[in-house]
Design brief:
Largest sheet: 8 strands, antiparallel, barrel
CATH architecture: Beta Barrel
Helix content: 10-25%
CATH class: Mainly Beta
Strand order of the largest sheet: 1-2-3-4-5-6-8-9
Shape: elongated
Low-confidence stretches: 6-22
């Protein structure tokens, strides 16, 4: 009898733990990133985890989570036979960011547009940037080469981010969400991010 009671208690505990773990969410996101004023385009990737802090039935979800983010942007120039004049006026630039984005996510509307969510949080990470110090022209017969000297620097960055998106449920535990984010970093870098997120609740 005691063994049966112990087994039943363990079974109920496991069921309760599973029900609580259903509040966890994992997600992957990918999309486009515009750097600065929009003259530098690129792409980005996110891997995230969230946990619902509210367990009441019908309560609007309040998620505490973190994302690991990576962004790459590049402004290319034509190095072989560049256009006369303009090919040397433009400058090469490349930037790569990797950072953490801990955030709170809130769903403000429960009846109408219930999938709408708003997020905000701080960022901390690392950036590497390459830009041109000097540009020269080299003529080798019919071929013209654009030669440049690059300056590469890397340093730690902090900042903040805000975003809005909308969850579209595909199944009881699976959904996708278009999301638009804005990030501002301590080095003056500003990002406009448009992505699609795929998420799973467990």
């Amino acid at each position: 009898m005691k063994k049966g009671s112990v087994f039943l208690g363990l079974l109920l505990l496991a069921a309760n733990s599973f029900a609580q773990s259903y509040q966890h969410r994992a997600s992957l996101s990918a999309g486009t990133v515009m750097f600065g004023s929009g003259d530098i385009g690129g792409f980005g990737f996110r891997a995230g985890y969230d946990r619902n802090l509210r367990r009441g039935e019908g309560a609007a979800p309040l998620l505490l989570g973190v994302e690991v983010a990576a962004d790459l942007g590049i402004r290319k120039v034509q190095a072989v036979n560049p256009p006369a004049g303009s090919g040397f006026n433009e400058s090469f630039y490349q930037t790569a960011n990797a950072y953490f984005f801990p955030k709170l996510t809130y769903y403000p509307m429960r009846r109408f547009l219930s999938g709408l969510f708003l997020s905000s949080g701080l960022t901390a990470g690392y950036t590497m940037q390459s830009s041109e110090l000097a540009v020269s022209r080299q003529d080798l017969g019919p071929v013209v080469y654009r030669r440049s000297v690059l300056d590469t620097k890397s340093y730690w960055i902090v900042g903040y981010g805000v975003e809005a998106g909308y969850d579209i449920e595909l199944a009881s535990r699976v959904w996708i969400a278009p999301r638009f984010s804005l990030f501002n970093f301590s080095d003056g870098e500003f990002l406009n991010v448009l992505m699609i997120k795929a998420a799973y609740r467990f």
